[in-house]
Amino acid sequence: MTRFSSVERLEGRVLLHALDVAGAIDVDAVAADDAAPFHLRLNAGGRTYVDSSGYTWERDRIGRGGRKGRRVYDVGGTGEEPLFATYRTGKLIRYTIPLPAPGVYGVNLLFADPKFAEPGRRLFRVLAEDEPVLTDFDIAASTGGRAALVRSFAVATDGVMDLVFHGTVGKAIVSGIEVFQGDSLPPVGTSCTCSAGSITKRSRRRGR
User: Fold this and answer.
1) Average model confidence (pLDDT) across the chain
2) b (16+ CB within 10 A) / e for 6-27
3) Would the pLDDT of 21 be above 50?
4) Are strands 39-43 and 56-59 parallel, antiparallel or unpaired?
5) N or C: which end of the chain has fewer CB within 10 A?
6) Domains and their CATH numbers in the chain
């Protein structure tokens, strides 16, 4: 079981550190400074990773379902190959992320398909707070092959972010999850595609 137990403040950002303990996730242990916007970066399926801009992506200790994996290959469209080369994959994957308070949060989901370059071989859906944000999602159809892809959207939460990945053809897969507070989020219920290289640039503008 995983509990969020410590909060680290680094130059205006808040990162949650997960510790293995017995029992359920302790939401009451999650605390944040009101002056520092919440910002969590999670390396899905992987270990702690520091990207080229100096941002820390936390080790995946809260994912449930599927299996963790890593495949070394040339990931197109990004300079962060180690981040996209690790993943969690399975027919059903769930992440339950405690938040400092109810409200609207931005979500970036990082994807790369290490196996399929042909469209139609892997399709899955993603639900955030029980609402579909991606349906019949096909990474290969979106990128044309083994390349990085980021999908972004805003989610209204009750204080806990529930993300579910469900494979409809083959298995679902995800390489990274970023959840943050901000002033310029897209409307709830909308999503957009952005380049993998823009993630750390936007993070720099929001503050580390």
Assistant:
1) 78
2) ebeeeeebbbbebeeeeeebee
3) no
4) parallel
5) N
6) 2-206 (2.60.120.430)
Segment (H or E) for 131: strand 131-137
In whole angstroms, give the CA distance from residue 86 to residue 54. Answer: 18
Q: What pLDDT, on a 0 to 100 scale, did the predictor assign at position 145?
A: 73
Segment 62-78 shows an average pLDDT of 89
DSSP state of 38: B
The alpha carbon dihedral of 18, 46, 78, 106 has a sign of negative
User: DSSP secondary-structure letter at 130?
Assistant: T
Alpha helices in the chain (DSSP H): 81-85, 139-143, 198-206
Closest CA to 14 of 34, 44, 40, 48: 40
Residue from 59, 60, 83, 57 nearest 71 by CA = 83
pTM recorded for the entire structure:
0.76
Distance CA 152, CA 195 (A): 10
The 8-class DSSP code of residue 168 comes to E
Sign of CA dihedral 168, 191, 195, 44: negative
- Using a 10 angstrom Cβ sphere, with 0-12 exposed, 13-18 middle and 19 or more buried, the burial of residue 78 is buried
What is the residue type of 78?
Answer: T
Evaluate whether 171 touches 66 at the Cβ level (below 8 Å).
yes
Q: Choose among 159, 163, 160: nearest CA to 151.
A: 163
